[in-house]
Amino acid sequence: MTPWLWFSIRPVIASASGTSFGLTYNTLVVVTGVAAVGFAAGVVGSLALLRRRPLVGDAAAHATLAGVALAFLATGRRDLPTLLVGAFVSAVAALATLVFIRRVTRTRDDAATAIVIGVSFGIGLALISGITARGLPGGGGLEQFLLGHTAALTVRDAAVLAVVSLLAVVVVAVGLKEAVVLSFDAEFAAATGWPVGLLDLALVGIVAVMVVVGLPAAGAVLVTAMVVIPPVAARQWTDRVGRMLPLAGLIGLAAAVAGVAASAARPGLSTGPLVVLSAAAICAVSFLIAPQRGWIARRWSAAVLENQWSRGRVLEVCLQLSGPDGRDGVDPTAVMLRAAGDSWAGRRTASRAWQSLARDGLILPGGSGLKPRRGDAGNRWQLSNAGMAMAWERRRRIEAWNHVLDEAVESGRDWLTLDLPDPVDVLGSAVAPATSVRRAPLPVATPRVPESQD
Amino acid sequence: MTLDPNLTVHAWSMATAAAVSASCGLVGGFLVVRRMSLLGDAISHAVLPGIAVAVLAGGSLGGPFVFAGAVAAALATVWLTQALHAGVGLAEDAGAGVVFTSLFALGVVIVTLAASRVDLDPECVLYGILELSAFDRVPVAGVLVPRALVTAVVVLALVSGLLASTWRWQMFTAFDPAAARAVGVPVTAVTTSLLAATAVAAVAGFEAVGAVLVVAMLVVPAATAELLVQRMHHVLFVAVGVAVLAACAGWIAAWYWNASAAGMIAVVLGCCYAVAVVVAPGDGILARGLSRLQFSWRVACEDRLAQIWRSCEAEDSPAVPLPDAGGLLERLAGMWLERSGRVNRRDGLVTLSEVGRREAEMVVRSHRLWETWLGRHADLPADHLHPPAEWLEHHLGAAMRERIEAELPHGESDPHGRTIPPESNS
Asked: Same domain, yes or no, for B62 and B170?
């Protein structure tokens, strides 16, 4: 590593870990290893999420503990690669048990998963507590695999983790096309002659590998989160697989590094919960502010749509109330009442729509063009020419849409599934959000009954 | 972990474990039939921050504060998962995966940070404190009873009271939620009450076996019972029985091997489930293997009899040389037929006894009737008629044979031109 990079990173990590002397070469290597694990877990987890099996690793994760304990008992060494091989074997055994239960018994899938999770974790706990109680030499630290503890990692351990993680990423990159087709259209994949079962098995296998590799960082109880949360967060930001995978990887990486740093700052804390909480924080922010799929964006576009719709409603009501020649003028209160329906929320949106229409000059305060009328002459408004045109255009489009629906019904087509034009294309801005339709049924746009042919 | 050799300590701990498992088993019965097992898993993790915050706020483990906190956390999990589904379109399993792991992580962090101030530590979160429960006692009616046992009994009473009082609604909602909603059962309230009961049972279980193993206590007894019996109330009884058995046996095993009681209870539960998988009546491995074996045996005997009968028919004599037997099962079947007096062997020739002849005729009759019927109705070439008949001859009963015969013209012979033996009257 070049010295200048070393000195530029050093204060950053030292401040992140909260210690003035925190950084040694070892720490850096360990952080790098855990970061690689975080990255790979995010990438691999994305595939599982896209295949709609986000929790496929959970049973394997809880089973790893028994494998760690058995590997220790079998070899008598507390050497990370050995323990992880044991963990992988028991993870595979747990998945095989799961398949066995599904095939042979009538226990349902969810209960089968819960049974494997509970019992395999119990076996691990019993073994580890037994080892601890007997005080076997070197068996003291095994419970660190429960919640994760990176402080004890050696440089060699970290290197092993990093290499396995990189291999996992390479495997994903090589099999990406197959994985994507499988996730989006498994039937197509099967029809094309791909071995869907084998590919699924490969996916489960690589998730199991990641769960095992993530064990030192996140622990058996929480390592599932490393494969679930970063992909969920990344999914909020993009609709493209090619961007989602690296993004999930980066989120996983950031969460892993943040968790390790926070755990270094507070020695009593296990790494796992901190890694998971960091990922959860990123995820929560993504839920809120992601463009398009985020909560704020969704609320915003719903509000825009609702405003458009109620502007259209108000224009329509004005058109109805302003008489056959359009010169009667309308009373704002009457328009409000009629456009809003019964609810207060409806009145609020209607009044907002009225204001925006007035601002845009589509409705004008009563003026020269109106027919004289007794009484309420003081508070009369009228549609401007542009407003009138827009109201007619909206009415025309709704009737066109109703006509399309009528024809579909007439010709006996199932209009839910067949090739109708997209309503947004036909209606443009007049399209109604479902809630508004329910709140205020359209009084004028009655469908035209086509003339009968005989 | 130190164990008091005093027997009363074991008795108290076992009673506590049993009471806790019983309430978990009861709730778990409904979770399993409603396919909500993984929700039980999520809840048992997610109650941790509720418990931790309640303990920090001054509640004691087993106190009402803690239960309120846990129920709130459990309902928050479900609500958050649904809100993520509705708000940002996240699939429910992924949402649950995000929510419960995050809440559990939060709980662990709170517990670790506050461990110095309150009597709750990460060890307890993972292993439970069953081993220590017998030493923390409160007087009840003059006897010093472990506080955890008192809590567990109260929880058991609460849970069974809730399930008993809403039994019909719970059943209706579990087995046909749409119909239940249609006739006005408050389905949402019923489900919420089940979730709350799960949370309450999870708190009791949390104290005994730790947050992670609660899922084993919730799901395994009920899944075991479901394999063994059919009716819902039987399932609940068996689940409670399995739970109590596993709690006691697990405690003893843990004491014997000096290991974590929580882990051992889960291991024993796993063994119970494995035993049920093997011995379950109807579709257990053993029952299925037995019935398969029984069937193969019957087929072998019938085939052997029919083989001898056909050979008699071909040679047109009552005594024939013994035809070659196929496999081991056929040879055994032949020996049994001789012992049971259906086949007699003399001077290297075999004859069928009266019983044996009648049974063989019925098999051959089924075979030939089916060949004939198939030949008339299925438009198959003659050499394709034999395999299906060979299979079906073991399944046609007397009533079926009669109906087939009634459809055929009188005195019809089979497609190979051989006569069909008449129905025997006895």
From this structure: yes
Closest chain A CA to residue B99 = A280
Helix axes B261-279, B285-315, angle to 10 degrees: 20
Strand pairing class (A363-365; B320-321): unpaired
Q: In angstroms, rounded to a whole number, what is the distance separating the alpha carbons of residues B21 and B208? A: 9
- Taking the CA of residue A408 as centre, how many other CA atoms within 13 Å lie in the half-sphere pointing to its CB? 16
- A126: nearest CB among B35, B263, B277: B263
The pLDDT tens digits of the residues spanning B63-83 come to 788 889 989 999 999 999 989
Q: How many domains does chain B have?
A: 2
Q: How many CB pairs below 8 A link A and B?
A: 213
Domain boundaries, chain A: 3-292, 297-439
* CA distance readout (Å), A277 to A413, B174, B183, B276, B346: 52, 35, 44, 40, 86
Q: How far is CA A132 from the centre of its chain?
A: 41
**Chain A, window 235-254: residues with a beta carbon less than 8 angstroms from a chain B beta carbon:** 236
Are B207 and B107 within one domain?
yes
pLDDT digits (tens, 9 = 90+) for B133-146: 877 788 887 788 88
Residues 125-144 of A with CB under 8 A from B: 125-130, 133-134, 143
Q: What is the distance, to the nearest Å, from the Cα of residue B17 to the centroid of all Cα atoms in its chain?
A: 23
CB contact under 8 A, A276 and B101: yes
Answer yes or no: is B276 within a domain. Answer: yes
- Is pTM beyond 0.95? Reply is no
Tell whether A104 is within 8 A of chain B (Cβ).
Answer: yes
Class of domain A3-292: mainly alpha
**Any CB–CB contact under 8 A between A54 and chain B?**
yes
B263 part of contact set with chain A, CB < 8 Å: yes
Domain shared by B230 and B293, yes or no: no
Which member of B38, B91, B227 has the closest CB to residue A52? Answer: B91
Tell me the nearest-neighbour CA distance from A47 into chain B, angstroms.
13
Neighbouring C-alpha atoms within 13 Å toward the C-beta of B3 = 19
Q: B392: domain range? A: 289-407
Contacts of B32 in chain A (CB under 8 A): 108, 111
pLDDT by position in tens, chain A (length 454): 344 444 445 444 544 444 444 567 777 888 888 999 999 999 999 999 998 888 888 989 999 999 999 999 998 888 889 999 999 999 999 999 999 999 999 899 999 999 999 999 999 999 998 888 888 777 667 888 888 888 778 888 899 999 999 999 999 999 998 889 888 888 988 998 888 889 989 999 999 999 999 998 888 889 999 999 999 999 999 999 999 999 999 999 999 999 988 888 887 788 889 999 999 999 999 999 998 889 999 999 988 988 888 898 899 888 888 877 777 788 888 888 888 877 777 888 888 899 999 998 888 887 666 666 655 556 788 888 888 889 988 888 888 888 877 877 777 665 555 555 555 555 554 444 433 333 333 334 444 444 444 4
Helix (H) or strand (E) holding A277: helix A271-289
- Asked if B94 and A222 come within 8 Å (Cβ–Cβ), the reply is no
Chain A partners within 8 Å of B115 (Cβ): 268
CB proximity B226 to A under 8 Å = yes
Domain-ending residue, one of B262, B280, B298: B280
